[in-house]
Amino acid sequence: MAHIRLAIAGVPTMENKSQIVLKLLKRELEFLERGGYKRSPNRPWRAPYIFEESPSCPNHSDRTRQQRCEDCWLMQFVPSDLHAEQVPCRFVPLTADGITVDSLYRYGTSAEIEEALRNWLRQRIREIESEMLDAGEVLLAS
After folding, report:
1. Quick one: which of 99, 114, 141 has its CA closest to 32?
2. Does residue 105 lie within any of the structural domains?
3. Domain count of the chain?
4. Looking at the chain, which runs of residues are DSSP E strands?
5. Is residue 140 part of a domain?
6. Which of 68, 71, 130, 137 would you call most buried, defined as having the most Cβ atoms within 10 angstroms of its Cβ?
């Protein structure tokens, strides 16, 4: 497995790509479980945007969006034909039948969106942990 150099929370690290993605998925799940996608008192008229308003987003605190979406770790989960979308992470398929964040914004409730995201995150975490165990890699603590 290739090793890549990424900055996580501003600290450059040298880790296996699977370990980095696993850490980021777990961080996103923790953010969700702590209520990170509940309505903010600063913006009570709408729920926060999934992925975009999460610490997982490279542009999380930057309204000018200086980081390119194509450099985001979530792009590996976006179908290649949707990489050119303005906000590609909205097109991560969260279910086996292709339901995305974008489609849930149109047809789902906040609870349905959070449940689909929670299930997707847990499934990706299980898959990566299983792949790492099969490859004999050491799993990092959360």
Report:
1. 114
2. yes
3. 1
4. 3-8, 11-16
5. no
6. 137
